Amino acid sequence: MRRLHSLRVFFDTNEQVQFHNAVSLQDTFMRVLSEFISDDVLSNLLIEAYMQEIICGVYRIFSRKFYKNYLLSGSNNSDEKLVYDVINYIDVHLESMENLSALSAEFGYSYTHIAQKFSAFTGESLKSYHTKRRFEKSNEYLRQGYSVTKVAELMGFKSIHAFSRAYKKYVGMAPREYKKWAEEDKKNLPQPAENS
Predict the structure, then answer these.
(1) Do 55 and 128 touch, CB atoms closer than 8 A?
(2) pLDDT, tens digit, 9 for 90 and up, residues 28-82
(3) How far is CA 154 from CA 98, 101, 132, 140, in A?
(4) Which residues, in sequence order, are CB contacts of 114 under 8 Å at separation 6+?
């Protein structure tokens, strides 16, 4: 309850915010609607998860202008700000980004410049961070019950085979194996008591 109150206060105290490229939020919203229509055994669980994703996505969009004020102290804050903005942009637009070259158009710097600054501040390559986030998101979708084909499509892979190869190389197991493992793991979790 306290968390909901703090979210409500946050959104109520913010001015009108304009944002571009809300495709990932639109996609999530459409998935909510499709779950309302399908109304199968897992629909309520998925609807709740999607609503949380929408709330978190909107919160990130609203908070984007605020986290910039909390930069680490350093000699070159504009570089730090760029890195924070790039991380936020990747996280918010993970599904709608066709490739990392989109960052150049968004931030007005060459890809090489952005990649160098990112690596200097995080100790991780930009490509490595993007890859890690894509597979973390893929795992999230697989745990939510999405088919491997749908996850491959959502994450922008040209084919299920390309996705499966890349996934296995990165995660160490095939996406179908991970999905099966996640389903077994979910079955072993203690279930909440039903209200009488």
Answers:
(1) no
(2) 777 777 777 777 777 788 788 878 877 877 776 665 544 433 444 444 568 888 9
(3) 11, 19, 15, 12
(4) 82, 86, 103, 104, 107, 126
